[in-house]
Structure formats: C-alpha cells, structure tokens
Design a protein that fits this description.
Radius of gyration: 28 Å
Number of domains: 2
Largest sheet: 8 strands, mixed
Strand order of the largest sheet: 1-5-6-11-10-9-7-8
Shape: elongated
CATH architecture of the largest domain: 2-Layer Sandwich
CATH superfamily of the largest domain: Bira Bifunctional Protein, Domain 2
Helix content: 25-40%
CATH class of the largest domain: Alpha Beta
CATH topology of the largest domain: BirA Bifunctional Protein, domain 2
Strand content: 15-25%
Number of helices: 16
Length: about 425
C-alpha cells in the first residue's frame, strides 16, 4: 500500500526550499543587527503551558491543539504557537537575571484545523520576543525591524496599528462591548455569537461580509484608553513617524490570544488576491508572570513562512538555488578517480562543484551538468592526466579552452576573481 503524507503536513522540495532559506537567512542576519539571539525550544510541551498562557477559552486550546498522553500519563501537546514556549524557557533558565533579553526563533507549529492555501496543520513561523522593557521604544524598534525585514525580501505590506488597552481600561470596555454586541446577535454570524461571552474582542476581527457593517459601528477601545495606555500608544506612533515607517491606525485590530495588552499590530498584503495577514504581534506584559515568572514586560511578533513563501512566489522569479559552478565530466575510470580528487580540492577552496558518480557516456554527463545548472564543465580522462591539461567547457557559450590541472583551484577560487 502506498503511504502518503499526513493531510495538512506538507513536504518542502528542493525547487521551493530556496525561498525558505532566503527567509531564514535574512531573518538571522537582520535580527542579529538589532541585537536578537536565536533560541530553540522543543515542539512538544506540557498542555498546561498553553492552557494557562494562550487561554482555555481560545479556539487553539479548545479545538486545534494536538494533545496526547505519553507513556508516563503526562498530558502533552505539539506547540500551536511559539511565544509560550519561549516564555517558559525564559523563566525556567532564569534569563531574567541577565537583564533585558531579545530572542528570535524559527520552526514548525501545529494546529488541527481545516487545511487551506497558506494555512496548514504543520506550519512554520519566524518570531521574535523581547523581555524586560516596558518603554514604547522597544515597540517602535520591533515594528521597524519587521518592516525592514519584509522590505529586504521585496514584500510590499501595509501596517495596521492599534492599542488593546490593559487591565485598567479594558474590563469596563469589554463589558460595554459585550452588551452592545448582545443587542445585535441577530445581525451577527454564529462564530461571533459564540465569542460574545468568552472573547468579545475577537468578534471585532470577524471577516464574514455580513458582519462588517455591524462591527463598523461598534465602540472603539482606542477612544477609551486610560491615560497610561494612551500615552504609550502616542509614543509608539510618534516613534514610527520619526523612523518614517508608514502605518494606519485601525481600531478594530485585535490579537486573538488572551495575553496581549496595549500595542497590537499587523502587516498585510494583497499579493495573493484578498488582503491577508503576513505577520503580526503585540505587547504581552502579563504573560511571564502568568506562567510563573517574575513580573516582566514583553513584546513580540510572528510571521507565517508558508504565506510569505506564496507571496514571494507570486512576485515572480524562481526560488533562489545555489547551483554548482563546476561540473566534472569523466571520460574514463582514470578521469573519474581524478574528478573526485579535483572536486574535493575545489570545495575546500569554496567552489561549489558536482559530478555524476555513475560515469558513463559523455553526452549523459553533460546533460546532467546542464540539469543541475552548472556554469562550467571540466572534462577529465587518461589523456588529460597525461598532458596535465583539462578541457574547460563554458556551458552557456559552448566554447572550450584548455586549463592546467594545477591551476584549477586558482581559476575558480573566490579569492582569485
């Protein structure tokens, strides 16, 4: 019986993985410039981490997590998002004693939901978290870094910004919003009605067209912020203005998880048709303490690599692939043995090269050289070894020139160009 992959958990093949490497290399380079260091956490965590951190009333915990009992009868789960695990590691290893921390991560997440384009059961995120800084300057820096990241990839995305208040101003607003929505249940979809009691902020984020006119009239938290939240929000917008980062304030923008306060933001793109989120984040000052750590402010963002890869593909052009510069073509057994030696020599010099270990007809080896995208072919055989001269063929122009075997590394090594 043929065994196929699990639905919603996809293979990444060589033809497309170049875009992923591009995303990840750009993240590592840029985030490092901003002082962020990489952290790697397990894909399996205790179920309680997300039940407490993400919230038991969220769809993630109630419907989407892959939860299971292991042989020790512990309730575990595959991580559905990255922040809670990074916070757990931050607390467990006492990183708070070292002062403010800037961390980033890359890796797979898991949610059991209906697979759709750009949204799968195993999906991948690149995210950052900053701990220990309550000042709005870190909000500004992080948003600007994400804006810079997308620009470096050539992705055009619009930034929406909001404040979701805090414990001082949000409870009274939520009570009023819940009452306002309750009076309009008949005009809202079933999902909205289900969220009115347990998470009314999420109702504002509903994408159902029939709900849009209703929600456009809903009261705005942005207009009812306490003085501290209002000052924080104004400082963030002033900082973005100073850096020249374009944004639009959107009073309906919320974050779907319980731990967010104050700054909430999202970058969206219409490159795939309807405008959709590429990346989003916000401030989560209560989360570290909620998960058992000392009171520690935090802010972070995450971006979905699957959707970002689709946007990069839609922009046109093939995925970046490193092609071999030199392909060794062996004319006989002596040439095949020498090709292994010369290939090792070039690789030590930093030159990407390849060969067909099967040997065989020259025509087939040249076809293989073209298939892998090599720039040059070096033909080796007993005659070339005897003369000390190899045939060097330009696979683009078909021109052949002799090259001394002793000069191969110097001919192709980066330092020689």
């Amino acid at each position: 019986m043929k065994i196929t992959g699990v639905k919603g958990m996809n293979d990444l093949l060589p033809a497309e993985v170049g875009r992923w490497q591009q995303m990840e290399a750009t993240a590592r380079e840029l985030f490092g410039l901003y002082g962020y260091r990489e952290v790697r956490t397990p894909v399996v965590e205790h179920h309680a981490l997300f039940a407490r951190g993400v919230g038991t009333d969220t769809d993630i915990v109630q419907k989407e997590m892959y939860a299971f009992e292991d042989k020790g009868e512990e309730l575990l789960c595959l991580r559905p998002e990255g922040t809670a695990g990074v916070v757990r590691a931050f607390i467990e290893h006492g990183l708070h004693v070292e002062g403010p921390q800037k961390l980033y991560y890359l890796g797979p997440m898991f949610r059991r939901e209906r697979p759709q384009k750009g949204r799968y059961r195993q999906f991948h995120q690149i995210g950052v978290e900053a701990f220990g800084t309550a000042e709005p300057a870190i909000d500004v820096e992080q948003i600007a870094m994400l804006d810079d990241y997308l620009a470096r990839l050539g992705v055009k995305a619009a930034l929406k910004l909001n404040s979701v208040g805090d414990a001082a101003c949000r409870p009274a607003y939520l009570a009023d919003l819940r009452a306002w929505l309750g009076e309009r249940r008949a005009e809202l979809c079933d999902d909205c009605n289900g969220r009115i009691e347990r998470n009314p902020l999420r109702v504002l984020d509903c994408k159902v067209p029939t709900c849009q006119p209703v929600l456009a009239r809903a009261p705005r938290l942005l207009e009812r912020l306490c003085p501290a939240c209002d000052a924080h929000h104004r400082a963030v917008t002033a900082g973005l203005d100073a850096l020249g980062v374009a944004y639009a304030v959107d009073g309906r923008l919320v974050r779907g998880l319980d731990y967010y306060i104050r700054t909430a933001y999202e970058f969206s793109s219409d490159a795939l048709g309807a405008q959709s989120a590429v990346a989003g984040g916000g401030r989560y000052d209560p989360l570290v303490e909620t998960l058992g750590g000392p009171p520690t402010p935090g802010i972070g963002f995450a971006l979905g690599q699957e959707r970002l890869a689709l946007i990069l593909a839609a922009a046109g052009g093939p995925a970046p692939v490193r092609r071999p510069e030199v392909f060794f073509v062996s004319a006989d057994e002596a040439g095949a043995r020498e090709a292994l030696v010369r290939a090792a020599e070039l690789r030590r010099a930093g030159v990407a090269c390849d060969l067909d270990a099967r040997g065989g007809k020259l025509a087939r080896q040249f076809k293989q050289a073209e298939r892998v995208g090599a720039r040059w072919a070096v033909v080796l055989g007993a005659a070339e070894l005897a003369s000390g001269q190899a045939k060097l063929k330009d696979l683009a122009t078909r021109e052949e020139t002799p090259v001394a075997l002793s000069a191969l590394a110097a001919r192709f090594a980066p330092a020689a160009r």
